[in-house]
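Appendix B, Record 12. Input sequence as logged:
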Amino acid sequence: MATRVVILGGSFGGLTTAFELRRHLGQGADITVVCDQNRFVFIPSLPWVSMGWKRPEEITLPLEGILRKRGIGFVNQEAVGVDPDSSRVALRDGTEIGYDYLVIATGPALVFDAVPGFGPEKGHTECIFTLEQAIRCHKAWQRFLEEPGPLLVGSVQGVSCFGPPYEYAFEVDAELRRRKMRHKVPIIFITSEPYIGHFGIGGLGRSRRIMEDEFAARDIKAIPNVAVEEFTPEEVRLKDGTRLPFRLAMFAPPMAGVKAVAHLGNEKGFIPVDQHYRHIVHKNIFSVGVAVAMAPPEKTPVPTGLPKTGYMTVEMAKVAAKTIASEVLGKSPPEPEPLGAVCLMDMGNTAALMVAKPVVPPRQKALLKAGIQYRWLKAAFERYYLWKIRHGLTQLP
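Logged structural output:
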């Protein structure tokens, strides 16, 4: 009987794990991806969707057809629970799926209730962490262009994913200048980071100086090391008493583990794992990506978390897949390398290459370089990665 592997999630971590397992085990494994979404979304391009620079159909792919071609099952449902004792996953329709190995690649739950008045659905701010949010944010941007005013961008306390707010701030600056409207829009960047360019990882080479210079050159005011008290329909109230009006506000939220697997995790629902991304208690459960519990490199005055990027997620997934495959084949799993990160951050009219190896300092390599060539590289990488997913690949051809 083939080994049954159930993977929760159809994004970077889930698909990489599925494709890698098929590559390592051939047809010796029965692999099923469970996901409440029916399409893969190239998440790094969501800021471009929010600006109207990309259409949703340009950055998405249908999951079922891609997986079926690789002999991988697809269940387009939400997982609502996991019983680690019986090794079963409960689905929204009341059915269950049994597994020999479970891989949690769900991504996070977005915690908008961390701050009163926060969020696009029940609050007064926009977000660009999901495709639906990016589409909604684009509509808000179009309304804003008709009646411009103060624009606030940032990250509240407890945030771990700092990149999208930086990208959004640079992109709105570039687009407003292109439209010759920049003088009508004061832009203020508010963040829980202790300083600009911290990114939740203790900085990266000369990132602080580079980001401060970029903000100054673009006339973007930065307010770091602050916590948000409340959002109202017209202003943000900071915990130090500052009140700032806005016509449009886009803020990143904190994250937590998704409800279906939170009972397997820590106090925030993130999954504790070892160096092979195996659950520290349940040995047939693995987790990759944002769902994994990872401590920040330092304690900051205002709480921040450690980012888990797409690159990091893919690397975790490859290690988890190799470990499962090695176990199924009766081999010892290879010792993983320290987890690193490579990112391309859009800056509107240019971009930056960011490298941190390992992610947590001290590092063997740390750099942040800006240049137009990195924007070209970011656009090319989007096309290349979508091509890889379309063909079920995880390695360079």
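The domain at 112-254 is CATH 3.50.50.60 (FAD/NAD(P)-binding domain).
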